[in-house]
Amino acid sequence: MIGYINGKKVEFNADDTVLNVAKKTGHFIPTLCEMADIRHVPGACRVCLVDIKRKNDSHHQIVTSCTTPMEEGMSVLTRTSAVRAKQRLQVEMLLADHNQDCATCIRHGNCELQDVAQFVGLQKTRYHYPHFYLERTQDSSSTAIERDMSKCIRCFRCVTVCREIQGADVLVIKEKGLATEISVRDQLPLGDSDCVSCGQCILVCPVGALAEKDDTEKVIDYLYDPEVVTVFQFAPALRVALGEEFHMPPGANVEGQIITGLKNLGADVVLDTNFTADLVIMEEGTELLSRLRENGCLPMFTSCCPGWVNYAEKNYPELRPHISTTRSPQQCFGVIAKTYLAEKMNVDQKRMRVISIMPCTAKKEEAQRPEFIQDGIPDVDVVLTTREFARLLKREGTKLPELEPSAFDNIYMGEYTGAAAIFGTTGGVMEAALRTVHKKITGLELGPIEMEAVRGLEHVREATIDMGEGNPTVRVAVAHSLKGARQVVEAVQNGEADYHFVEVMACPGGCMGGGGQPRSKHAYQSSWQARQAALYNIDREAPVRQSHNNPLIIKLYDDFLGKPYSHKSHDLLHTSYRD
Ligand code: HC0
Ligand code: SF4
Known about the structure:
single chain, alpha/beta, Ubiquitin-like (UB roll), 3 domains, five-stranded mixed β-sheet, globular, binds 2 iron/2 sulfur/6 carbonyl/1 water inorganic cluster, binds iron/sulfur cluster, repeat, Fe_hydrogenase_ssu_sf
């Protein structure tokens, strides 16, 4: 079909809206609520106004382009003075009851409302009604997420992502008209609700209404305290996404720049969560073997994703014995740093502060669990998300792309394998575990080492692994997003699936798509493929690709832990789950 946008001929399909056709043909129309990759078109913000004239009709009409079907012969104008004036008025109305504390807003400089105000040429606002927005909810009850409804523009993207993508369905729309507010189901504070702290709602919020709890001040305090020894760990998925905050392409590996940036900030020791990802494989792999050999509780589910653990505890308490008791790599890192590393470095653990940088908001909550605090000393003291870390670097004047990369220099915990690197993507923990489990069962390294069956982005993927003659075939599944998690759990509970081992990551894509990662304006998943490809590339290029072959993990067991699943390992590296 043929129509016209700004006088140019455009081709389109029968089910296209004016907005779709404009996007496909490179004509920009501002929007604040629409988000194509979560199929969210509520027609709520009313900023995407255009002038249309139908074939054989001399009347011009101003309509919202997201809700108007494109028609044969239709002529669309996007920038007439009447369109611009109406868009300006609409943005002015959105700002009238919006808390305009922009200079101090966490989203300053990355706010879609600011962008649209600039695009429509709004230079001052005539209306400002604080009595409306000041009555709206400010909710700090969650350990991970802040809700400030005085900044909400009611685009409803968060409701859609929580309901349709995650299936958690925690956020709801309350009231109507001017009183409309995004609320938490049953009017609960977020911290008392079924929210699992995954942070996916933050990734789609166009303004500063949803954000992680900001802990950067605590980190600066530790960095500038001469009594404190700071030990930083950063997560597998951080290095392939942080660059986006500094205008680098998604998937750029900035591991070396992160190390330099942290050293420049005054970090005493910079290490990698990947080291303890290898350690987790040793413990979790041995745990799986013991469950397989001793008729233990199967299937075993992975435990490293705190969003998933929260979800299972809240929704499927009967699953608790199925969840691996192995702590996550973040928590194993904290405890090994404050015991083994403190001993090796001759540092009093009371002076040590472990600071994590994670692509995840739920890791903040995980670090504060009482199970992970011994005698008032937490294993992990502070968790920053990727976005907070970017803010910290920017505040201190760091230009990440200009930094010379450095290498890890710690001789006790400073090496990782390719298996650990792929933890950052859905399927990676499973692939890493199978490399080690295969070696333990058969005595041979798994080949081919790259397990295509567990790679990819389908919500649930299954595989069977031949463990050699005389050994049972191992059946596994990988799920990502909470919807995927529910699908797998229900299949297991209904007797439709019979797995030995299941990996679950709460965030779509796994940690690379974590709720603490850099967000893209107007898009939800635009960086995933590049981030995932970069993680697989790190594995491909790694000199050692199996966790059991990490020489510093072998030394850790020789010098300190004994063997995997030993008493000492149990005390330090395993946990239990809540009723
Ligand atoms: Fe992940 Fe992790 S892989 S949860 O996604 O297992 O956050 O990147 O750090 O702990 O290693 C996040 C990422 C981690 C942990 C690791 C696991
Ligand atoms: Fe929903 Fe996750 Fe946001 Fe909680 S953090 S409200 S579960 S999307």
